[in-house]
Amino acid sequence: MYIKRLLCLACSTKKHESGEGRCVAGKEMLAEGFGGWIRPVSARSSGEVCESERQCQDGMPVQVLDVVTVPLLRPQPQHYQIENHVIDAERRWTRHDKGAWKDVQAALDTPTGPLWINGYSTQNGLNDHVPEPLARELSRSLYLISPESLNVIVRTERVYDSLPKRRIRAAFSFNGMEYTLMVTDPVVKDRFLLGKEGEFCIKQAALCISLGEAFNGNAYKLVATIITPNRRR
To answer: 99, 117, 149 — which closes off a domain?
Structure first.
């Protein structure tokens, strides 16, 4: 067993066969600053972390911007998701502090090109997925970026195999390229799903972007977190 001290930057919804859990991710906090990404995952094949597994010693589950130490058992990279580490489900996490906007700014990634590979779009998205064979050649699955512009889109979308659903997407520019990606941030979803449909400009934010596990032959780019300067959870 080993532990990692993280600034939690994502605690997004992750659906699986038995229900819904969370995909947790953060950057390691070292004496000299931020290190690499860590994604704590469960030992289950779907990897989601349930509420009891992400509980801290104070009895409350981890939230975005928490500084926590996480007991881990082993690294478990899976193709491009090289950041995965299996949690020790018998031990609770320890919450130490709360990160601030300046910490988010210090943790930003600065890729100079596209977010992974562009040119593949779904009916309702833009540059929102990568074919699985290409994704398997990639070497990371997480970014924290500062977009050049950002709009949250709330709309009802037709889905080919089910009834229309109201969904939340983030449309943003980064390095001069445009993206429209699904949002899996539960705080943002709770805020916008109950309101009216439309496009809503967010003037300042950092986005945690995750390349999810392959589904139906594609790995989807997801906005796991929208962090604004006044975010508290």
So the answer is: 99
